[in-house]
Amino acid sequence: MTSVEKLITIPDPTDIQKSKFNENVESEETTTVKEGINFTGFKTKNKLFFKEIIDPLISVKLDTLKKLHPVDAVNELALFVFDIYQQYFGKDFYRWAGDIFDLDDPQPKGSGYKKSFGLDCSGFASTPYELAVHYNLITPEQTPFSSGGFKIFCEANNFTDKDGLSGTSNNFRLDTRDLVLLGREILSVPQGSSINSEQLKMLQAGDLVGRSGHIGILVQINKELFYLESGGWVVPRYGDGNPYKAAEAIEIFARSGDLTIRRCLPSKLK
After folding, report:
1. 133, 143 in Cβ contact below 8 A?
2. Can you give the pTM of this predicted structure?
3. CA dihedral of 227, 231, 236, 242, whole degrees rounded to 10
4. Do residues 259 and 201 make contact, with C-beta atoms less than 8 angstroms apart?
5. What Cα–Cα distance (Å) separates residue 127 from each residue in 3, 77, 146, 200, 201?
């Protein structure tokens, strides 16, 4: 993949930043009470990383981001989040129950559950939307792929947020089972199949690809669509942690089950 000029640049971390934010920093065990039940586990600190590292870098580009089409703004945020998490936390920055604003419960088990920093697949895929809403680039009503938008969806459709521990509420933190129901379906990809060139033209940056259990996001790089994910079967195994061309990634992903490709943003004319 050739290099690409990105709107939000990431300076090299200082020694102090790297000592505070790295893949080896563990969280403290904590107990929370929900619906009368005690839950003990380890909670993420991604919001601290957001406040100290991410926010200052986005804020200086905010005026430019606000002028972009929502699809382009989400694209820039997705690329930025992928890059900065890899820079600080490694090529595979997966952390079970990791989301950017620490909405999820403290976890008693799961891959990397003691890590302070990291995003799981749905946490990563929804982060560009969470950030876009946070910075008023789009409204919650425009994107059910954000916690604010998901809350509006639940209230309007009598849909229960129950992705927390033991089926409790999870502060409207999105899981894969939610994301595959939200927005509108652009394509379905049956297990063992692939997409053709005409179907590829139907897709755009910000589209979510997946099924209940795993999800990734499409981005545009040099006018070509690529696939990004945290964890999963494509980027870590076939892309060496790098973005993977969308059509090829979808074919690999579909080997293990049916996929749906969904969108919540306006379709952008090409």
Report:
1. yes
2. 0.96
3. 40
4. no
5. 23, 8, 8, 24, 25
Distance CA 217, CA 69 (A): 18
Expressed in angstroms, the distance from the first to the final Cα of the chain is: 22
DSSP 143: -
Residues 6+ apart with CB under 8 A from 169: 34, 35, 161, 162
Locate 154 and state its tokens: 């639940």
In b/e form, how buried is each residue of 18-54, taking b as 16+ CB within 10 angstroms? eebbebebebeeeeeeeeeeebebbbbbbeebbeebb
Question: Can you give the C-alpha Rg of the chain in angstroms?
Answer: 18
227 Cβ contact list (under 8 Å, min separation 6): 209, 216, 217, 218, 219, 234, 235, 243, 244, 245, 246, 249, 250, 253
Q: At residue 91, what is the residue type?
A: K
Measured in degrees and rounded to the nearest 5, phi and psi for residue 188 equal -115, 140
Average pLDDT over residues 143-153: 98
- Lowest average pLDDT, out of 34-38, 43-47, 221-225, goes to 34-38
Q: Around 56, how many Cα atoms within 13 Å sit in the side-chain half-sphere?
A: 7
Pairing between strand 259-263 and 244-245?
A: unpaired
In the chain, the percentage of residues whose pLDDT exceeds 70 is 98
Residue among 226, 11, 37, 46 nearest 124 (CA): 46
SS3 146: coil
Please, are residues 43 and 165 in contact by the beta-carbon 8 Å criterion?
no
Confidence band, pLDDT 50/70/90 cuts, at residue 5:
confident
In 3-state terms, what secondary structure has residue 247? helix
